[in-house]
Automatic annotation (TrEMBL):
Name of the protein: LRMDA protein
InterPro entries found in the cross-reference section: LRMDA (IPR043313), LRR_dom_sf (IPR032675)
An example Gene Ontology biological process: melanocyte differentiation
Pfam family, one: LRR_9
Amino acid sequence: VAFVVCRSLEGLKTFSYLEELILDNNLLGNDLLLPRLPHLHTLTLNKNQISFQRNTCKILLDHLAEVVPSLQYLSLLGNIACPNELVCKEKDEDDYQRYRYFVLHKLRNLKFLDTRKVTRREREEALVRGAFMKVVKPK
């Protein structure tokens, strides 16, 4: 397990066999770029600055799908992108479920998202409708 307390993740490229990475509380945003980490199966990005502004979260999820192909556990709790009713009173369980479908559509190998196991029904729903589940606010 590696603990990183910095904004630059360039040094991670020397840890190509890394399996777990905790990047909580690091002010990381949608511009996060990880090196290719083919063995990484667990990534936590809790309490950072990841949001669904424009298409940037889609780009981040596409990037993760490419550079961490073995990813099975991802946690984004405490980020604006993760509409959690405990953090934001305007959000409800439906908002959170749409977020899950969208993330699962992009990262199809996930077994756990945040604190919950991915169900077969969620995976099927994500395949059918996940691309359309991005949570956005009207301007």
